[in-house]
Each structure stands twice: as C-alpha cells, then as structure tokens.
Amino acid sequence: MDFSFSEEQRSILLSVERFLDQHLPPEEVRRRDNNGDPPYHLLPLLGDMGVLGLPFPKQYGGLGGNWLTMTLIQEKLGQKAAMLCSLANRVVGFGGMSLITYGSEEQKQKLMPGIIKGNLLFALALSEPNAGSDAAALRTSARRTKNNWIINGQKTWISDADAADYMIVACRTGAPDSGAKGVSMFLIPRNAPGITMTALSKVGNNCLPSWDVVFDDTQLELTALMGEENKGFKHLMATLHYARSSMAANVTGQAQAVVDLVIAHATEREQFNQQLSKFQVIQHRIVDMQTAVDLSRLFSYRLGWLIGENLPCRRESAQAKLIATETLLDVTDKGMQILASAGYSTENDMQRYWRDARLYTFGEGSNEIQRNIIAKELGL
C-alpha cells in the first residue's frame, strides 16, 4: 500500500495552491463570504488549468485522470477556499460524472466540452418540502406526452439553482406509491419555461446560495431523460457517491484549516505568562482534533481510490461522508472553545468555519441515513 503522491499529483496540487493564493487569498474569501458573492468567474480558469477535465475520458476532451487525484485537489480547494471547491464539485460531480455514468451519448457530446472548460454549472434538485432524507417519497412528477415531458412540482434547498445552466432533477414517472422504483432523472435547462425560483436565507455557506424551485407545466424534449425511465434511483445513487466523495474531501480540507488556525492562535496567545499551547489541556485537545482530521483524510482518500478503480463503495461512501462531516463539526466546536471570544468575532475565520460546518451533517444525505446505509451493508 503506497501512500505517497506521484510527481504529477504534487505538481497539480502546487499549481492549485498558487492559483488560490492569486485569486482567493484569505481576505478575498472573507469579502466574498460577507457579501454572498460566489466566485463563479473562476470556473473557466479552473477549466483552463485542466482541473475540471481531469477525471473525464479523453474521448470527450478530458485528461483521463483518476478520481483519487481529483480527491486531492478537492481537499486542497476545501482547505484554502471551500466556496470554490463547492462550485467545482457541482460541475464535476453533479454535472460531468452524472453524464458520464448515465447520460445519453447525445447529452455527453453536447455538454461535456462546456463542463471541462468550466462554462457550465449544474445543480442537483432532489429535496422537496416533504421529501428530504426519504428520497423515494418525492412527488415532483414527470408526465410523458407524444412529444414532450411535462414537469410539475417543487424542489427546495437547491444549491446554486439560479446560477446553474442545468439542473439534474429527480422526478416521479411511476405511480404515486411506486417509491424508489418509479423515479427518473431529467436534465432541465435553467431557462426552461414554467420555472420560478425563490432565494432562501440561511445562517452559513453564504457563497452557496440555496433556492426553492417550482416547476409549473415545464415542457422538456423527450431527450431530457437521463438514463432509463423508472431506474432513476439507481442513477441517483451513483451521483451521490461522487457527491459524497467530493464533500468528504472538501470538509477534510476545511477541518485541516481549522486545526491550523487553532495552532496558530494557541502559539501566539499568552495566558498566565505562557503560551496557550503549553497548557496540557490545550495540547490534548489539539492532538485529538488533528488525529480526527487524519482519520477523515484516510477515509476520503480510500473512497477516492475505490471510485477511481471502479470498485463497489456504497458502504465506504457513507462512511467517508459520515466521518468527515462529523469531524468538521467537532473540530470547529473545539476550535471555537479554544479561541473563545476571538473566534466568535466576525473578523475571525473561525466563526465562518463553525457556522458553515453545521450544514454538512445533513446535506446530501443526513448522517442518520448514512448510518442506515452502513448498517444495511453490514447485513444488520
């Protein structure tokens, strides 16, 4: 088992770090967070670097790289500028990997070039007012006519929906009581008729705007169907493997940034005539934080390797998401306690990590659902 990075991986990560230092230094990240100003303009630049095309086949203009390298990049983005990592993950995971996994050849030929260049943004529209953790309970419907699909229903808490060029939308095409067996996936342009959106306010992740989306007799061409009709739940699970891998890498990077911030504070701050870092209670707490982050990193890397090798990873996907998001929640809580009022100040990055962290344990599949998945995989 080789844990070393290849020369190519080290070179890519160095290029990504330099890119972030130039375009999203800490002060720019703070400014954008304060203003709720996502850095959409940087996606084409990531495309020019080859980052967005890295995991895709060469036949579609990609670089034919492996998903583990993408995992390393996502961790670096998360550590330095999580807001850009989230956008990249929507392009690569929600958009590109969904198309590669179950999109039609026509859809791939049409959209993959724009994805790889960073010119297309995607949103995954799954959650509904009465269907969150229970995705099989969704009610947004797609009805086939002779020439069209007609979409009606409501989705909620859809990240980047208004800025997205396309939404990948889970709809019920079977009977109302068909559960997971009656779900299909659709590729819906943002500018399709009959779509209205309402912005939702929230406490964190200011550069990840969330929207309520209503479809009112939205007409689509028959080619808008992704994959097989009524087999969408299977397709959705594939998308969520990539999404959870991306999230695990992103929040692992964020958690490392929190530990680094705490260490810097503890070595600079003095109490009772000595550095805060010299108190054993502080040392032990920081040690526990770093150990948890290292464990999160191992789970994230393992999942990235499994996906890259096209191996089954249902349990490992749930585990990586579970461990990484709960680690971030834990280290931000401990970090706030160590920084105390300094961390509670809006001038300090600690408060941003703390309020942003709360989303991830229930976003893209709550951690209770992840535990259910793991239990099922264990035969319980």
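the 2nd protein, sequnce then structure:
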Amino acid sequence: MQLYVDLQIACSDPNDLPILSSFEKWIKAAILGGSNSHQEEAELTVRIVDPDEIMQLNHQYRNMNKPTNVLAFPFQNPPGLTLPLLGDLIICKEVVENEAKLQGKTLTAHWAHMSIHSTLHLLGYDHIDQAEAVEMESLETKLLTELGFTDPYLSEKE
C-alpha cells in the first residue's frame, strides 16, 4: 500500500515530536487493520497544533469550548469521483503530552495510540455507543500490541 502523509507542524514547541516515518507506520497499521485493508493508496494530512487552534476547531465543529487530543475530518469524495484522500487529523501536542503523563504512558506509545485512534475515525470507526466503543478499542489494542506497545486501555480495565 502506498501512503502519503502531509505532516504539518503548527505548534509553538516542535521539540519531542514523532518523526514522519513513525506517523506513517502507525497510520498504515490502522488503514491495513481497519476496514480499508484493500486500499492500494491513501493520502492524509496530520497537523500538530497548540491548544488554542484545536479548541477553536473543537468549538466550531463540535460545539465544545475546550481543547481536545485529536480531531478527525474525513474527506467526502464528490459523487462520481474517487480519490485516495482519507482526510485530516488535527492533534494537539500539549494535550497528548499531558495525557501521557496522567495515564503513565510513554510519549511515543500515546502518540501511536492517538495516530491509530484518529485514523480509525477517518475510516468510519466511532465510539459513540458501547458496542462501537468496544469494537474500536479492541482494534486499537490489537494494532498497538502488534506494533510492540501495551494495551492503551489497560489501566481503565483494571
């Protein structure tokens, strides 16, 4: 599978961010492990932002006036046109870093989790109801453990 990731660093502190090849590895795992495993080509944007930008987007698109870890904006192909565009992922560096500390996870493990989680949203997965949440979390856990990380929900299950 051919994957094109446009990585946009739009945060004020670009230190300690994963490199492009890490994002590509995690995103590709999500695409191949998700329902689009037959997809030959995919393109998406990953934009790393500060809390102000993600809070503005969260307010505009979800009517929530607070920062969040990730937002996923799936691309909708126009009728009669098929493009390999999956959409855009907006990830807040500061929120991801704070969550990793609070949850006792390594920063790399949490970046991997957020990348996989948000890519699965682009593929149509969601966690609005309990059945969807179980399906999505199970797939995230499977993909992350295959990549050498621990179950990201382990502390919540104990």
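DSSP finds six helices and four strands in the chain. The chain has one domain: 2-157.
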